[in-house]
Design a protein that fits this description.
The chain is mainly alpha-helical. The chain is about 70% helix and about 0% strand. The chain has one domain: Butyryl-CoA Dehydrogenase, subunit A, domain 3, CATH 1.20.140.
Length: about 190
């Protein structure tokens, strides 16, 4: 059974299909993957590292590593999970080599004409959250980033970190406790 011309023109291949094509040498397919996921890769790296330039370096390095490993790719998990696994490893590697630097502002904060007071309050809160994240061990920090900033579920995080769901639950629980200790006075009862 074949697709009609109209169906072929509207067909949007899955990330996994694009990665399989890239494994076969299709650079256009890999370019499409980059277009789809470069912002997500950069956001995850930025939220972990707190430095835009380093985040860009990590995102680029992640895609280069994925392209290099493309011939060995097996679609056992979603491409998104695979990408976060690579980004996470690169971020953890950088964190083990040096202490991360957190900026005072978080990008992509959307607001409809906030007042100056709201802007200052938001910046202050973002700075306080960044400082609290800085005190978490790297693995706890990355779990928080993947869960709350990137929206991954526990199974996807476990796959990205190559661990169990139970280990993710424990890491997240410890991270929440650490954040609660640092941010407790800012949480409304």
């Amino acid at each position: 059974m074949s697709c009609s011309a109209a169906e072929r023109s509207t067909y949007i291949p899955s990330d996994e299909a694009l990665m399989v094509a890239a494994a076969g040498g299709d650079t256009v397919a890999f370019g499409e993957l980059i277009e789809r996921h470069q912002t997500s890769a950069w956001n995850a790296a930025y939220r972990f590292l707190g430095d835009a330039t380093e985040a860009e370096d990590v995102a680029q390095e992640a895609f280069l590593k994925i392209l290099d490993a493309a011939p060995r790719y097996r679609p056992l998990a979603t491409f998104r999970t695979y990408l976060y696994r690579v980004v996470t490893r690169l971020c953890l590697d950088r964190a083990s080599k040096k202490k991360p630097y957190y900026t005072h502002a978080i990008p992509n904060v959307a607001a409809a004409n906030p007042s100056p007071l709201e802007i200052m309050s938001g910046r202050e809160l973002a700075q306080i959250v960044r400082q609290a994240l800085d005190y978490l061990p790297p693995k706890q920090r990355v779990v928080v980033v993947l869960r709350y900033y990137e929206g991954l579920n526990y199974a996807e995080i476990a796959s990205a970190l190559e661990t169990t769901v139970k280990a993710v639950e424990r890491l997240l629980s410890r991270a929440r406790q650490g954040l609660e200790q640092r941010l407790g006075r800012f949480v409304e009862p």
